[in-house]
Amino acid sequence: MTTSLSSGTRLGRYEIRSQIGAGGMGEVYRARDEKLNRDVAVKVLPAAFSEHPDRLHRFEQEAQATGTLNHPNILAVYDVGTHDGAPYVVSELLEGETLRDRVNESRLPTRKAIDYAVQIARGLAAAHEKGIIHRDIKPDNIFLTNDDRVKILDFGLAKLVNASPEEVAQTDIATRKVHTDPGTVMGTTGYMSPEQVRGRATDHRSDIFSFGAVLYEMVSGRRAFRGDSAIETLNAILKEEPPDLGSSGVDAPPALERVVWHCLEKSPERRFQSASDVAFALEALSGGTSHPSQATTVSVAPGLHRQILSRERLIWLVACLLLLITAAAFAVAYLRREQSTERVIKLALAAPENSSKQAHITVSPDGLKAVFLANNSEGKQFLWIRSLDTLSAKILGGTEEATAPFWSPDSRYIGFFANRKLLKIAADGGRPQVLCDVSGDRGGAWNSTGTILFGGSEGLYRVPAQGGQPALATKVTEKEEAHRWPYFLPDGQHFIFLADAATAEDHHIRVGSLDSQESQILFGAISRIAYAPPGYLLYVSQGALVAQSFDARTLKITGDPTTLAEHVVDLGDNHEFDFSVSDNGVLAYQAGNPISQLTWLNREGKKLETVGEPGDYATVSLSPDEKRAAVAILDADGRVADVWQVDLTRGSSSRLTFDPAGDGSPAWSSDGTKIVFSSNRATNAQVNLYIKSSNGSGDDQLLYQADGEKFPTSCSSDGQYIAFENWAPKSKAAIWVLPTMNGSQPRPLLQSSAFNQFQPQFSPDTRFIAYTADESGRLEIYVQPFPLTGEKWQISLNGGDHPIWRKDGKELFYTTSDGKLMAVGIKAAGKFESSVPYQLFQGSIKFTGDGWSVAPSKDGQKFLVNVYAAINNSAPLTIVLNWTADLKQRR
Fold it and tell me: How far apart are CA 878 and CA 278, in angstroms?
């Protein structure tokens, strides 16, 4: 219990006058400094608290950290001492109120909020420059003096990131709001950064996130993150975005919204990287005005040199901007000059530093910028953007797990897909906007009247560029499976697209119009397609990028296609070849040999040996005795063609299926005598289940036929069940089982109308079934008992697919979207238990839509992996300027 100090009590040279506040860290008094003849504030830590080393250490941190700072927007600390065993700190005395008192249930005028925010950012910048992190920025720790000057209070949790090795390590005790009981975290949870919530290491960017939450509250009058409990609030910080500022009736400038969202990025690397940058961005919004307290004076007062540097910085930034504009003008002029002289220039666009898996290059219509997908240093996939007249690229924040980007016609925005949603983001950054829900990422196109087309299983859909309810724009025909990769023609009304089908001969490039759901065939091809002025269609044929003459007015093609580049990389199973073209003669593509190699890797990813010859492999499935592998082979257009067997001892291959239709997804029976596979040979609208003897004798036998697509994935060890994926028309993917007893009918095991469940894998003892589902919004691995009991365990933590068991059931492996192989320890003797997933290795694994690319050995000590033989996804992207001149030379 704290005993308050009475008026007249002396603490050294300081005489207590009255108590002015109290909180979890101590009591605050007004006192008189008789030596300097001024009033001060004295904060006293109760003697009982000083008996606890952690709390005492926090108090010492406050004094040590704040005492090194000298800035008009930070509370000045004058002295420290002890009184009757209780430590105290002496600071300047402030008159006014906290920001919490000012914004409690009400918002500030926008100009006032910006003024306060600039001062807060300046104070944080000064602290960060000295290596000091506050870690508890919130309205309660920001004081507004009577003359409207901002003061940052309570650096008691500051972390000295440059502390010397012999200094005591910092604690991570939860912070407290001043007016709550000691120990509660309710007052601070809404301002923690995601890394603080997760208990991870923090740096100055944690303060920037907390600052963003405070700025949001000042502008909107409501908390950025607030739940009914502390746990719900913490979950909101990790997983949710605050409501748009406009939803609270605030007419905030778009530039201010961008600053807020840039501060509130979940990942530190996507936020502002310094408080100085935040202050500069906010100063630009306020017209460059400063608070009177920071105005230039004649005398060289503290902070004056900062003002001069700020002005110098502004002058230099303006000068740099002018230089960039001049450089861009010269680049455009040079581009035009080169085009007029029929010269072709080819450049290699290397992956950004500390990134990997660069792919899906997409050039802006004006030919000045390119956006592409790449992984950051942590292995997470984002959209990156690069101006072609610069040497560096930057991440577009908020685009984690993005796929299939496409540009707006004015080159100002980028559309993309992520987590079953269509989104758009400004090319200069900002917060992505969700436009609508989607079922997949089959490509998008954007016209000049604000209509976006995107692909789907029933046809193409249209949605306004501002978002809304999608409407069907085209309809698939009886022989087609989906419409993909739309591309608008110059009139903005007509468009071209790929009509995907079950057989190669039924794939076509079609042309449609926004005024009708009907479309007409242009020609046969199995590729995404693009239109390029003055009149060409670009697509991939037999692995080569070709250009076909095309009249966009009459919708007619003429002549034969001309090859532009060999071996353009196929990015997946949806014919998403990696190329793009602008409206003014810039072509981009990624080329390389698409073949892969079956390779044995150990648990560290080190190559042990290769198996057989390189080929275009898809699914890899090990036989029970590990002497053979069943593989699916892809044709030149990237479609599954046939099932083969590879002798793992001799490296020889033999063909198992011979039907002209597509055969794939092989799965071994438990005794190794048969192979179950999928094929579309019976009907164009179906992919059915077949079985054949693994020695090649006898005919292929039909197991199960029905509408939709079925893919076998696992046979139980007792030989009684075959598990398969069932993709029925207009339904989510479901997991079915087919009993092997004669006359038994297949039945659904796991199915939902709300999300997909697929890739089932029986455990070695058939007691459990592992599978993949997107019920959380992304793919994760789950396990349930077999037969089902209602119990369920999520295995993966940050996404995963293609689960597969070790043969003794002690581990479960799966892969991630960025090419990692993960392992999870399993205990199932009594209650089912799983360990935290851990990474084994990350490599250039070739993933396809047909099935598994990794097969573990019985003991899990090595893996048969389908890896790229000649290229990897970090290969340079090629940029061609004035590509039509190259086309003329090739003809």
Answer: 36
| Averaged pLDDT, 274-282 | 89
Owner of token pair 């120990």: 183
* Domain 97-294, CATH: 1.10.510.10
Reply yes or no on domain 342-591+874-890 having CATH 2.120.10.30.
yes
pLDDT in tens, 537-578: 999 887 789 999 999 999 999 888 888 887 787 776 578 888
Compute the mean pLDDT over every residue in the chain, rounded to the nearest whole number: 82
The two three-digit tokens of residue 795, written as one number: 């295995």
Residue 470 pairs in a beta bridge with: none
Integer Cα distance of 770 and 803 in angstroms = 7
Contact in structure between 835 and 796 (CB atoms under 8 Å): no
Q: For residue 158, what are the CA distances in angstroms to 107, 146, 152?
A: 28, 26, 12
pTM for the model: 0.47
> Considering the chain, what percentage of its residues have pLDDT values greater than 90?
45
Of 471-485, 628-642, 656-670, minimum mean pLDDT range: 628-642
- In the prediction, which pLDDT does 425 show? 95
Tokens in use for 541? 């044929």
Structure tokens at 485: 């990769």
Amino acid letter, 113: A
CATH architecture of the domain with residue range 596-868: 6 Propeller (2.120)
Element (H, E) at 487: strand 480-488
Res 25: pLDDT: 62
What is the rounded distance in angstroms from the CA atom of residue 360 to the CA atom of residue 414? 13
What stretches of 52-109 show up as alpha helix (H) in DSSP? 53-67, 99-103
Cα 551 to Cα 231, 529, 746, distances in angstroms: 61, 15, 51
Q: Which residues are catalytic?
A: 136
Average pLDDT (266-272) is: 89
Task: Give pLDDT, residue 287.
Answer: 52
Contact call for residues 363 and 370 (beta carbons, < 8 A): yes
- Report residue 434's pLDDT band, with 50, 70 and 90 as the boundaries: very high
- The domain ranges of the chain are 1-93, 97-294, 342-591+874-890, 596-868
The CATH architecture to which 1-93 belongs is 2-Layer Sandwich (3.30)
Long-range contacts of 20-26 (CB under 8 A, 24+ apart): 21/178, 23/176, 23/178, 23/179, 24/176, 24/178, 24/180, 24/181, 24/182, 24/183, 25/58, 25/59, 25/62, 25/154, 25/156, 25/176, 26/2, 26/59, 26/88
Which percentage of the chain shows pLDDT scores above 70?
A: 82
Fold identical between 342-591+874-890 and 596-868? yes
Dihedral (Cα; 655, 656, 662, 665), 10-degree rounding: -110
